[in-house]
């Protein structure tokens, strides 16, 4: 039975991190059939995280972040051509150049793109950027190297904060406008967002929170000159970076009959896509930023992540399941893990910080700018964030995987705890949750890992 | 040759910074920044760093070249 799964035709759409790692894993798992990878960017797979860090700092050119291969996946690369549609019954991917590719199994790995500024005329002004691709980064890095008077960053998420940080490090004046009360609040909650705001201000960022940018302005030559804010003020700047988050690349699937929408393509824990009726398919798989998948540790809520580590882990599981059947298939149970470097701080997170009602500082302190913050939800540990304490993260990962009680017992960490009373985590409440049994992960090898249900009470 | 560091796994042990300082640098206390394109004269050092990383977070390899399959 498995013999035929190791043969046949596999098409991967999306030639980036998830697409490449899936292609390599297919070969590692013994797939000997034909493999085609379709990507609309003209470049072979490259790494994006350096684009907002080393590249904007001027240390590394935007065209040098090509991803190394683990092994040559012996694939046919169809680069610079967009997949325009999917015929799930005829099992073909339609390409924008008119061709179509027949497949036996398909992997959707089309990721996300930068959310554009809503007004297209304003977005087209010279000097207005978004940051997702290598070309975006090359253009923005060139402007920063030319020494602009001021850069306006719209949006205080991770990308916006990293851009502001890079500008300040290069001595460029920056204004960052964020609608929320502080940068990173949506991702990390109230307490750490206050640390983030302090870091911006200490490094000389003109931080404007609780405001929206209402209009971008340009001169008669179409060059960006500044922006109007909702508080009536105006920012004069010659470069603007719109960092309003990401949009999932699902439009090409509009007619495919899959459960694809603005939050991604929904799949099961084995990375198999659901169709629009919620019935799982067995020949269409999903991995990376475009996916939306249930995670047992978070009440089986569907997670949509934009994390490098998730793209790799999920691509490996998807590829494994594309060439294995039934009980040999593996669930994608990796804990979400994320990092960001900004203002000289190394911020790392494990678990889902927004899936929390309380937080407690378990090690270090806000004053030291070195700490481990633990997030709890209904009495168990669901996430942890470290600032310049990366070595502690493994320990908290273990607490999350074993559904350890929150707040963690004093002394549970490998060093004395700076005991702190838990305070509300101050993130939007996880919606639609009900009391239920607690789920933990068991097993040590990723492919043996299972879930166990511990009855509540 | 290209490198990528799995920074979800990297714990800032800085062995790589010590072994190949032209390629790996610490930014602040433990944030790692590196040059993905490895110059030929750094290749040996990067190989050593890759082997020495206690969490095996560094991957060294060729980029995809779409024409040779
Ligand atoms: C500036 C920046 C900084 C980042 N920093 C971090 C960080 O510090 N830490 C972290 O964990 N993560 C970070 N990330 C996120 C990380 O890069 C992503 O999680 C990762 O790239 C996801 O990989 P992917 O392959 O799923 O999707 P993507 O990398 O988005 O790739 C999808 C590919 O599919 C292509 N495509 C889309 N539609 C089609 C179509 N119809 N036909 C053909 N091809 C198509 C796209 O053009 C793209 O090349 C950062 C991202 C950016 C942009
Ligand atoms: S040696 Fe490994 S863990 Fe240490 S800083 Fe380098 S990549 Fe990170």
TrEMBL record, chain B:
Pfam families xrefs: Fer4_15
Record flagged with keyword Hydrolase: no
Protein origin, superkingdom: Bacteria
Keyword NADP applies: no
Keyword list, A-Z: 3Fe-4S, Electron transport, Iron, Iron-sulfur, Metal-binding, Transport
Co-factor requirement: [3Fe-4S] cluster
InterPro entries named in the record: 3Fe4S_ferredoxin, Fe-S_cluster_ET
Its biological purpose: Ferredoxins are iron-sulfur proteins that transfer electrons in a wide variety of metabolic reactions.
Name of this chain's protein: Ferredoxin
Organism: Streptomyces silvisoli
